[in-house]
Amino acid sequence: MDHQCVRSESDDPFLRIYEPSELRTAAKFLSIWKPFLSKRLCSHCTLILSDRIRSIHPEFDDEYDDHREKNDMPEPAPQICTSECKSRSIETSSQRMSWADMAQEEDMERESNHNSCNPNSVVKTAAEKPKLSREQREYIRFMNVMRKKDFEFFETVHGKPLNILEGLQLHAPVFSAAEQKRILNYVASLLDMAQRGQFKGRTNSAPQKWMRGKGRQTLQFGCCYNYAMDEDGNPPGILHEEEIDPIPDLFKVMIRRLIKWHVLPPTCVPDSCIVNIYEEGECIPPHIDNHDFIRPFCTVSFLSECKMVFGSNLKIVGPGEYDGPVAIPLPVGSVLVLNGNAANVAKHCVPPVPAKRISITFRRMDVSKRPTRYVPEPDLQGIQPLAYEVDPEKRPNGSKPNGYDRNDKNLEAYEMTRSLQWPANREQ
Ligand SMILES: O=C(O)CCC(=O)C(=O)O
């Protein structure tokens, strides 16, 4: 079944026996019930359901327009929900995934939370929900991102005082609770694929469990980074000849968000990433990111808050124990951007984490260091930042699209992220 096929259902003999007013009522009813009807369906099947409701009467389920309008990803591939649908969706999600799907999921979540308190409110909630366009929703979320860019910590470097945190930025929240959930499920699927040996070469590496402070599990995409001199005598840096899997689709959607929301500049679109999976007590030792990667680069935090420690001279006080002068908390859903002195003078590390944590580090390779078989990602070309002013003082009055003002919905959603769980049935 494809979308063409769903659209032409308005000519369906079943529908022809009903009056337009009856079809309108049916479509209204079904669109109110869609959060329930689409529960646990994959995003693609949810789209098919939306399309079908729309084919009954076009006035309803207009949220679906958002999926098409300025979609981050191409038109969904034809498919119906089968038992294999879920497992296949990870491989083909590039054709399906967009943040509009996630925004919809967030709405659904909010509604189901609300309705679980008051079963009589189903109709009222959905009917009263103000209709915001995708642009308006994105604008509100963009404006609610808090951006800290004035980190300061002075140390004496080469005999002179220097702000070693110059160039550090924290943006939060960039990914909502629903988006974090989606990303974590996606990472879980990537780990399953890694376990089944479905990735090339050194995409996946696991820590040596017997040694305290020996890291974390990683998944690398876009390039293979060698952390230390390997057994073939390769120095640390990008391995030119090593084959590796390309950046997974949902991570490309994340990258587009980072550029569009002014977190990374359009001159520095990441073309590689590392997923770090820290079990409780795991860590990353003090380091400065290799200059095979240009600046800035960034790390996105999930699952639990941890501190990143900075200092020009971080001390290793024992296996997995690090000491440094500044510790910066990284909230879940936040993005820490490293540039300038913070990336090039200060070392950083993550001391043993108090609870399971996942981070995704996005970096752009220096052109001369790209792997031999490097192919630019078509999905990551020509991304432009949204034309809104980030600095509140520079925002002209009335710059808000269609009169929508800042609200705190996202901050509430952000607070909810603290209770997110790693997919329940996974091994710890
Ligand atoms: O886990 C983090 O947030 C930091 C990861 C990091 O420093 C790295 O991947 O080089």
| Small molecules in complex | 2-oxoglutaric acid
Q: How many domains make up the 3D coordinates?
A: 2
Q: Which regions are unreliable across 5 or more consecutive residues at pLDDT < 50?
A: 1-8, 61-80, 86-97, 111-124, 398-419, 424-428
- Which strands sit side by side, in order, in the main sheet? 1-4-16-11-18-9-6-5
Helical fraction: 25-40%
Tell me the strand percentage band. 15-25%
Regarding CATH, which class of the largest domain? Mainly Beta
The number of distinct helices, counting runs of at least 4 residues, comes to: 13
* Major sheet: 8 strands, antiparallel
Structure classification:
alpha+beta
**CATH architecture tag of the largest domain:** Sandwich
Q: Do you know the CATH topology of the largest domain?
A: Jelly Rolls
Morphology:
globular
What is the CA-atom radius of gyration, in angstroms? 23 Å
Can you count the beta strands? 18
CATH H-level superfamily of the largest domain: Alpha-ketoglutarate-dependent dioxygenase AlkB-like
Distance between the termini: 39 Å
Region (Disordered): 383-428
InterPro entries: AlkB-like (IPR027450), AlkB-like_sf (IPR037151), ALKBH9B/ALKBH10B-like (IPR044842), Oxoglu/Fe-dep_dioxygenase_dom (IPR005123)
Domain Fe2OG dioxygenase: 269-366
GO molecular function, one term: demethylase activity
